[in-house]
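Troubleshooting log. The previous structure file for this entry was overwritten by mistake, so regenerating from the original sequence record. Sequence copied from the archived sheet and checked twice against the printout by T.R.
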Amino acid sequence: MNFLNPTSSLVMEQKKKLRELFSAPIDPAALVRRLERPRGPIDVVLDTDAYNEIDDQFAISYLMKKGGNLRVKALYAAPFYNEKSTSPKEGMEKSYEEILKLLDLMGRGDFKPQVYRGSQEYLPGETQPVESPAAADLAERAMSYTSERPLYVVAIGAITNVASALLKNPEIRDRIVIVWLGGNGLEWENCLEFNLIQDVAAARVIFGCGAAVVQLPCMGVVSAFTVSGPELRAWLSGKNPLCDYLCSYSCAEGEKGSSHKGTWTRVIWDVTTIGWLADPEGRFMSDCLKPSPIPEYDGHYAFSRQRHPIKYVHAIHRDALMEDLVATLTQE
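Regenerated output below.
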């Protein structure tokens, strides 16, 4: 964590916003209602590090093609930093370009004006937002929603953009539901998971501010949602340009990253966030209420029974979700 000059007027203003965010009273009944699986039409924005892995492409495509009750309003590019980027900034830029590429493959070039660049760096601390078009859009867009009719914010990367929007405008806390794939299962030995550990400060803002959060943990929960090369080729190859891209790209990545030639599987766990939104009957996964965990900077969770509740997904019903994913992606 980077500590800021405590005498700075900017920092003092940021700390004031943070106190407002964390100290505003929480209506427990309203919070629990927002955490229920949505029924009927809802508005959705998706925050994604699209170039980082193969699963973001599946999640973006699933959401955009699902239609029905899921009305997509914006796509945000999230930062990431690993062997596929030289910095969080480059990771975000590559993700932005990958989103545009997927829209072309889906014949949805019309949606490109609703794609926003996100943060070029992670939060420098728990009081200071990172300015970006994505954070600005979310901070403004969410004001059109209410506690009874919230905006659903799906996040499948580092949660920097969403935390920045909350720090910029604490009033949106009770107007959004954050569906985040981040961290590991609460019983896992640590929370050294890519999305969370990139920006622990942002994760602490999300889990600590009292917003409605649906957590889909990686190891121990959504790590069950995997697919193999033979399955991808059988289900997607030749169906449409988008499916051909998803199949060829995923198979190339899978074969490159595995020593088990021909028998590898890869997680496509980002898909589960969209599955939760599209699953009012609970066919795709099981969840429950838990006290909000506290991500610590040492890579572990701390816990308190006094914390406000979140919705915690604890099991994925792989075959049911996979069937819906394939049917959605292969439709014309």
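Residues 45 and 251 are 28 Å apart (CA to CA). Archived copy saved in two places this time.
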